[in-house]
Amino acid sequence: LNMKLSWLVIWAGTLFLNPVTADCNITSQTVTCEESGKNLPNIPPNLFQNVTKLSLKNNNITLKDSDKDILRSFINLTELYLNENMITVLYSNSFCNLTKLIVLDISNNRISTVHKAAFAGLNQLSVLNLSYNMIIQLDSDVFTSLKSLTVLNLQYNFLKSFHIKSSFKLIKIILAGNPWTCSCDLLDLQIWLTASNVTMENENSTTCTFPNTEEKFSIKTATIQPADCKIVKASLENTVTSTSAIKLKSSALLTALTPNNITGNNGTHAELPLLGKSWTFLAGVLGFVLSTTLLIFTAVKCPTWYRYLISYSHRRLEENDPEMFEQEFSADMSSFPTVTDTKNEDPIVIFEKIHAFVPGEDGFIEDKYIDYVTEES
After folding, report:
1. CB contact set of 233 (below 8 Å; sequence gap of 6+)
2. How do strand 172-174 and strand 151-153 relate by DSSP bridges?
3. 3-class DSSP state for residue 214?
4. 207-213 long-range contacts, Cβ below 8 Å, gap at least 24?
5. What is the pLDDT along the chain (377 residues), one digit of tens a residue?
């Protein structure tokens, strides 16, 4: 009686000191925090570590590092329910210490990425539920460590293909609700479904569509020609091989051109300038050429500009300039044709309209000095 009373006091004290735990339904082997109403963001740290079943569904758990550290202490756990939470990524070794775990339910989350070693250490895992997530691609090695897996639920994700190894042994698989594509990428799964004794649940609704079509076919019976896939695979392998060869040649060339691999005539290692300094040298040369060209251009053009500016100057008219103008005008007038009247001997000068008069610059500069000289004369 005293032992039971002491355990009761310890249990009550634990509940009092940890109000989060008080909202969970706790028995000797089970902890259920499904309807706590608190939307737990983390896994409670003070739960009983000897429990075999832990249910934390319908919360806001993201399975960050602190949550993984807490899970490692549940070494006797056989069932873990983390469905209906906010998990987005399953990192490597997320459940590495749960060696006795048999059932893992992480459905109805927002998982889009599953790392290759996410389920490492789960040697006894038999049932894995990844349904109703956002998984686009799964590596075939993700489930390699799950030697005891018998049931895999992948329905209602965003999977279009799934490369699966022939050694993968299951009793039941659920694949419905994914946008499977009837292509060579689905051939491995189709062959595995046909060759193994696995039961595919909801087989009639597990369909795929060929590219550029909307007609749906069962992924187990869709006509995918292995010969065509071999041709495609061979072409891809040739492409990869040629790309690898080019990369190897490039790396070999770079290795041969390194300073450590180049020797001079006397057997010593020749010094090569670093790749980064060659750009600086090139920029310096370009700057020097441009600046020299600019200086030469300026030196050639400066005298021409100087003469142009000096030539633009005013000149005062000389006193005899009007007389010279009259003489030139008389000479010009003599060149015009004349007509002699029969009655009168006076010649008549005929002015021909050679050019239309266009007002504009006449080459002379208006100056007050001209008017003054004219008035005096």
Report:
1. 184
2. parallel
3. coil
4. 207/180, 208/180, 208/181, 208/182, 209/179, 209/180, 209/181, 209/182, 210/181, 210/182, 210/183, 211/181, 211/182, 211/183
5. 444 444 444 444 444 344 445 467 888 788 888 765 558 899 988 888 889 999 999 999 999 999 999 999 999 999 999 999 999 999 999 999 999 999 999 999 999 999 999 999 999 999 999 999 999 999 878 998 899 999 999 999 999 999 887 678 899 999 999 999 999 999 989 999 988 889 999 999 999 999 888 889 999 988 887 776 855 444 444 444 445 555 555 565 555 555 555 455 445 444 444 445 577 888 888 899 998 988 888 877 777 766 766 665 555 555 555 555 556 555 555 555 554 554 555 555 554 444 444 555 555 555 555 555 555 55
Binning the chain into helix, strand and coil, the percentages to the nearest 5 are 35, 10, 50
CA 58 to CA 109: how far, in whole Å?
A: 10
CA-to-CA separations, 325 to 42, 71, 368, in angstroms, rounded: 111, 117, 18
3-state per-residue secondary structure call for 267-296: CCECCCCCHHHHHHHHHHHHHHHHHHHHHH
Contact between residue 259 and residue 270 where contact means Cβ atoms under 8 Å apart: yes
Helix (H) or strand (E) holding 216: strand 216-218
Q: Which two tokens stand for residue 54?
A: 């832990």
Return the closest-CA partner of residue 160 out of 131, 129, 183, 191: 183
Q: How far is CA 197 from CA 11, 172, 186, 191, in A?
A: 49, 9, 18, 12
User: How far apart, in whole angstroms, are the C-alpha atoms of residue 343 and residue 264?
Assistant: 113
Residue 257, classified by CB atoms within 10 Å of its CB into exposed (0-12), middle (13-18) or buried (19+), is: exposed
Burial grade of 128 (CB within 10 A; 0-12, 13-18, 19 or more): buried
Provide the residue type at 244 as one letter.
S
For 325, the 3-state DSSP assignment is helix
